[in-house]
Amino acid sequence: MDYSIIIMVIGIILIIVSFFVKDSVKKMETEMEDLSFTLYQETSALKRRLKMVEEELLMEPTNIALPAKQKTKSVIHEIIKSQVLELHKQGYSLPEISKRSSLTVEEVKSVIGGGK
């Protein structure tokens, strides 16, 4: 037989076999979509947990007996203080820091004044 006929038969066989073999690219796309969806779910769960923790930190203590001088002033958590100081170092204005930290401008001034 002629080589061209052998090559043509092999080519036809390979084309037929390629229809029956699963597409590995499609499988990889499916795996990437699954991984992406899982990553999105985990990120969303972490954001929800972080939001809950932030809300807990911003809540004022209700049933804790405070000394007399602290009863008139609200208690500012150390994490909030460090965030305020970091925002101040980054050059944010007092109203911007106040918005981002949920503190009043006066509280932000006292934190910055006490942190220097």
Can you tell me the overall shape?
rod-shaped
**Secondary structure tally, helices:** 6
Mean pLDDT: 81
Count of β-strands: 0
Largest sheet: none
Order of helices and strands: HHHHHH
State the end-to-end distance. Answer: 93 Å
Instruction: Give the C-alpha Rg.
Output: 31 Å
Helical coverage, percent range: over 70%
Low-confidence stretches: 68-73
Q: Beta-strand percentage?
A: under 5%
Alpha-beta content class: mainly alpha
Task: Give a brief description.
This protein has 116 residues and is mainly alpha-helical. The chain has six helices and no strands.
Write up what this structure looks like.
This protein is mostly helical. It is 77% helix and 0% strand. The chain contains six helices and no strands. The chain has helices at 3-20, 24-58, 68-72, 78-89, 94-101, 105-115. It is rod-shaped and about 95 Å long. The model is unreliable at 68-73 (pLDDT under 50).
SSE arrangement:
Layout: H1 3-20, H2 24-58, H3 68-72, H4 78-89, H5 94-101, H6 105-115
Features:
rod-shaped; 0% strand; single chain; mainly alpha; 116 residues; 6 helices
